[in-house]
Write a structure and sequence with these properties.
Structural class of chain A: mainly beta
Order of helices and strands of chain A: EEEEEEEEEEE
Number of strands of chain A: 11
Helix content of chain A: under 10%
Largest sheet of chain A: 6 strands, mixed
Shape of chain B: globular
Largest sheet of chain B: 7 strands, mixed
Radius of gyration of chain A: 13 Å
Number of helices of chain A: 0
Largest interface: A-B, 23 and 25 residues
Distance between the termini of chain B: 37 Å
Strand content of chain B: over 45%
Oligomer: heterodimer
Structural class of chain B: mainly beta
Chain lengths: ~110, ~110
């Protein structure tokens, strides 16, 4: 299966700390994306990193991609209670295939 | 970007009945996707809804159980048929404005079968 694997499955941190989530995948990709889901609602796109990129920033988010290791990481700096959510990576493989989502990391930020 | 209106947002249904979920997009899109998210799990793709042709189902999902309609480029429905408690999940529709770009999601339908 192409499904990505995130770790950790759950992460609990204090407000102000940084949160790092990792994602591994199995096949060649066009891009890798990170999504956020609040309380079982719809997913919200956070950031997309293309296979020829190594690092990307968006506000407090930093994403890295290592295609040789087939892995990516999402760093949220200076976390806030409002960052509490589940975070999923999704891979967009080469060819006309739909996104495949990882298992997700449940992040809890304690005020 | 795309805005998706999905309804109902939640429902509690009796086993053996069917529920139809609707997704309306504010722009024309070629493909729409339907996902299932079982409690505490990730998203699993059910099928890709193509306008003007039958939906393409993923392994483990069949048309008789999850019939899909796609009458035009802005609308799709997913029906969960002959429901059992195992069908209790969140169902999500999604679109991509263009290939290899971000996906947009509806707010999800939280289905509980009793």
């Amino acid at each position: 299966s192409q499904q990505g694997e995130e770790d950790p499955q759950a992460l609990s941190i204090q407000e102000g700390e940084n949160a790092t989530m990792n994602c591994s995948y199995k096949t060649s990709i066009n891009n890798l994306q990170w999504y956020r889901q609040n309380s079982g609602r719809g997913l919200v796109h956070l950031i997309l990193i293309r296979s020829n990129e190594r690092e990307k920033h968006s506000g407090r988010l930093r994403v890295t991609l290592d295609t040789s290791k087939k892995s990516s990481s999402l760093l949220i700096t200076a976390s806030r209670a409002a960052d509490t959510a589940s975070y999923f990576c999704a891979t967009d493989a080469r060819g006309n295939t739909p996104l495949v989502f990882g298992k997700g990391t449940r992040l809890s930020v304690i005020a | 970007s795309a805005v998706i209106s999905q309804k109902p947002s939640r429902d509690i249904c009796q086993r053996g009945t069917s529920l139809t979920i609707q997704c309306q997009v504010d722009s024309q899109v070629t493909m729409m996707f339907w996902y299932r998210q079982q409690p505490g799990q990730s998203l699993t793709l059910i099928a890709t809804a193509n306008q003007g042709s039958e939906a393409t189902y993923e392994s483990g999902f069949v048309i008789d159980k999850f019939p899909i309609s796609r009458p035009n480029l802005t609308f799709s429905t997913l029906t969960v048929s002959n429901m059992s408690p195992e069908d209790s999940s969140i169902y999500l529709c999604s679109v991509e404005a263009a290939r290899n770009t971000e996906a947009f999601f509806g707010q999800g339908t939280r289905l509980t079968v009793v």
